[in-house]
UniProtKB/TrEMBL annotation, chains A, B, C, D, E:
Keywords: Cell membrane, Ion transport, Membrane, Transmembrane, Transmembrane helix, Transport. InterPro entries: YneE/VCCN1/2-like. The lineage of its organism: Bacteria, Pseudomonadati, Bacteroidota, Cytophagia, Cytophagales. It is found in: Cell membrane. This is Bestrophin.
Length: 294, 294, 294, 294, 294
């Protein structure tokens, strides 16, 4: 995630950052530009379009459809942002949960019981790291992290579902404490909620990751943008001459940018500039849980 | 559900996939096209419309109403997408729930108690398969799945509500464990939440399935689109000549596509390309629960 | 509620069903039509409006305000639909709740304890029927339903709040079971949530029923539609001649339909075509609870 | 709150009720009307504006900005309505809560224990009345209501936070019952949720009451409406002559009405026509709790 | 937060308060104004633009894109407002929670147990103050507040996460009470929810604070506004002459204001006029908790 000073307009307007849509769209914008020049040339020099030609009135269709296309793009923007923000909320809950879990363990488990306290102090943050890797689908070596942790499966099998295995380890340990009467049944209920919340967060993140917006919308919006832009110079050439080319290119830049940003945002678990800082959040969890339990 | 590479614009724009609206709408688009040609012919050669005719100003009405129609379609799109996404969330919860359920059983039930562990290891995923079949209304043979499971009614009567019977079987078994003092009252409360969640998910899916958007909206939007498109060539013929036909056809394609996609999306429990991958999710549940309990 | 085949466009477009807005609006549309003819006649033959008259430019105001009116109508549509969908969700929860309640009773109450099982098997569905009648404000005879049920007040006083009395009866019985040690304290907590949920659903339905959208909005939207439509022919008569009449009538049909549908939808507890199938849902509850408990 | 028959359009369109925005805006509308006449007079007789004057094209700006202003007003409308509806939901929850509380007390407390039953039968509805008065900031005498209630502070100090004191009294009594072993620990947990819910509702109502929409939006929208309306006649005078005056006044009426209604709605705890019927709801609570506990 | 009388339009329209966007935008508006004058001068006196020039038709592009820009700004406005309102809700929950916590402690802890009552009476409000300072990132001296509180870490290390340390202190004390059998297990569960809620609120506030809207949107909207405004005078100069300058400046004022207000609102934890009154809310918590526990 890119941190930025929201107030500095000059920076936003004149700097073209690495993630700017204009970079990614540059080739397509150029093609549209050249295509528009071509259309204009044909209309002026070849077809010799005159004032009574039908193309004069084509822009009427474009303004008729401009509402539909704007609204579709805003629908797309809203949907993508909602997914991104839901992802952020889920990781926020993960932070909360991990802290609450640690605070409760700190209060319930005897301060002498070094072993159990260390177990949770290490196992809770591992969950966040495992989830991050799981969502980025790396076969990661977090199982090496901090040496082996007794109570978690010695080697987390990476071909299995890793966060689940950690959750299972956490719950078993809690249940074990209950079996040993180190915590009471009331405390069991309290702690149980924390472990469930972890797997709920994991499942919700998976849902966002593996369910893109329905294919039909994604396909229709792209088709619509292209057809809309490609018919635009036909009507504009008459009105604007060769200047139609930069204008059509600009309209395409605006429409395609919105679709492009939406595509980036709606998948918040990568490591682009717009993606969630899961690495940092995991480290925060590690630090906070450490502060509380060590 | 169709998995796709969101970034490949060329594929989206130039390929016409099986589920594309343009295929389904082709006959209607053709009719509109021919109708527009007919209207144009009549206006030009029969009525000989002149510059002072009233039809010159008809497009004013269309642009006046273009906001209303755009907004209605976006309302439709939002509603349909919300239903689809709610369906996806519910199945995501089913995954979470099944995992949590298994994790808790794994922690609570004695590791020696092979019988009970196997019961839950099989009965939990069955719920997901049963729900899938229930939502797709097939008289399915999942009761044969994996042989008979002791503790579930020997033969799930397909004419009864199958998911309910499984939930009843699950809850009875839990209560039985409590009666045998294999789990405590505190653990009972913990497990109880899981079973309730299953039937809540089932009920919510049924609600989405059996309650379409109110008839009045569905009917009004279709009427409105048709009346809007059919009056469009009357005004456009004067301005655009025979080229009015492709333009009217294109406007119709855009408006009708949105309605058509909405219709597909709002019912997420079929087995179209846009529908939820319930089969796959059920298998995931089976695999995860297996990993945890076996 | 009307069940319909969403895919059959022809049916939607050419059939005018009983609940179609065009039927209800027919008289008003006719009045608007005649009024527009009158305005046009006056402008053409009496005032002899010419090209430099100010009325030529009146449509500018209408297009300026067309955004506001469209957005207001969509706000109205969204609000009404949200109320309708919330009503549907509440009844969905009622179904879930009743099932969960029954499943738990089935697990907790001894299978020999015929009396208690029958009590709940009958009393739970009664709640749904009572709520339906309560929401439709009929002084109904459901108290006769299935003879007297021991444990519910012999005669539910219809002048009192009936669903409350049933909930009170259910809760008393549960508490009684707890007093007799037939269920434990842990089970009491589990069952208690179910009864609370019933009254929460009842209260939420009452809220939807007795709180229409604020008077100011309802009144303003209607005033705005009428003023907008009545000034429309003044500007259109010049441009469109006598054809202004059908066009103004069509614009009015569109705007008023949206308001009319919203009015119907926002009150989902009647027995119109668009209203919720509470009778059917109640019968489903009865059937499912029966399957589980009998 | 005004109860009204939604279906009677004539009433809405031709009657000007006391709370109609047209009454409150009348002076401002008149000023705008006279101002527009003045601008028109100046343009026609003093500046003698001709067809090539720039003012001819000013309306272009107004139509460019008409989207922005419409959308801002809809944002305003949505926000205000959401606050109003949230207020309504909170009071709905208060009704539910009070009923649930009473139902549970009725089941748990011995039917012989007149004293405790009477305490709750009186103290629960008092909370609703106190909240109403608290939200309307009256130094009220509800402490006199129904004589002194033993167990509540003899005189509720009005300078303190009254609803809090009642909640404290309720919780103390419940805890007292638990101390006297009249209710079990399980029942304590059940009842505890009810008291918490009461203070949560109180806090949420306070939040709505004491947090208006951010000053910047409120100020910007009003400035925008005025600047928009005041520049409107400059461009319209050329096109519409003296008829610009009623048209500008009408546009102002529409825009200002939306802002005005939003202002009224967003503060739902007064005693205007659009405000919530808290008095009535409190009386309903009193009646229902009475039915259940007496 | 600025408290204001919503009804006084004159104040809003004619007074320019300190936080008004017009002040902050004044330099930029001036630049745009001068730039527009320059463009107009060039077009009229240098390029001598004539009626058949293409620039005559440039405004067509601006009206085509006016929907997109309006909708983007409303998306921005909605998003910012949602963040602000979520922040407000979280602090409202903090108030509720603190009260509920105090009410429960008041009921559970023996009235003689001065020490514990004083501990909670002081420690609960400290949490709110600490959260405020934490969110405003001041290295504050609240640890000095009210002298040392036994049971909280003697000196809250400001370099650690302060609210977490207080929550840990609160939970330890509760668990201690449970260990000493001063509260039962049932009461532990009740109190536990309150402490969890505190850290959940803290985490959610942190999420809002440290996650701005994705960089891509923020950057794209600013670029779009600037490009849109800077090309506007090119088309308007022909139509409006030198009067294009104030009009372009006004359009820029409207668009940039919306972006500017959104920027201020979306970060609700500063101490601007639009920010949340956290200081005041914390003092309220202190007063209410004091009323309840002292």
């Amino acid at each position: 995630m890119k941190v930025y000073n929201n107030k500095d307009w000059a920076q936003f307007v004149f700097m073209v950052s690495k993630s700017d849509t204009i970079r990614k769209l540059a080739p397509l914008i150029l093609i549209i530009f050249v295509y528009s020049l071509g259309v204009t040339y044909l209309e002026i020099h070849y077809f010799k379009v005159t004032a009574d030609s039908w193309v004069r009135n084509l822009p009427q269709m474009h303004s008729l459809l401009s509402f539909v296309i704007s609204m579709l793009l805003v629908f797309r923007t809203n949907t993508a942002y909602d997914r991104w923000w839901e992802g952020r909320k889920l990781w926020g809950q993960l932070v909360n949960n991990s802290r609450n879990f640690a605070i409760k363990i700190a209060g319930m488990v005897d301060t002498q019981d070094e072993e159990n306290r260390r177990f949770f102090s290490r196992a809770i943050p591992i969950y966040a790291f495992a989830l991050k890797d799981h969502l980025q689908s790396k076969a990661t070596e977090y199982s090496l992290h901090d040496g082996e942790i007794k109570g978690l499966p010695t080697k987390l099998s990476p071909e299995l579902h890793v966060p689940n295995q950690i959750a299972k380890g956490l719950f078993s340990r809690i249940n074990h404490l209950y079996g040993e009467r180190k915590i009471t049944g009331d405390q069991l209920i309290v702690l149980n909620g924390e472990v469930s919340a972890l797997t709920d967060i994991c499942g919700a993140c998976e849902r966002i990751k593996n369910t893109p917006i329905p294919y039909s919308y994604s396909s229709f919006i792209k088709k619509f943008i292209m057809l809309y832009t490609l018919t635009l110079p036909i009507g504009y050439a008459y009105m604007l001459g060769y200047f139609a080319a930069p204008i059509v290119a600009f309209v395409f830049y605006v429409l395609a940018s919105l679709e492009l940003i939406a595509e980036e945002i709606e998948e918040p678990f990568g490591d682009d500039e717009n993606d969630l800082p899961m690495e940092k959040l995991s480290k925060n969890i590690q630090r906070h849980v450490g502060e509380i339990l060590d």
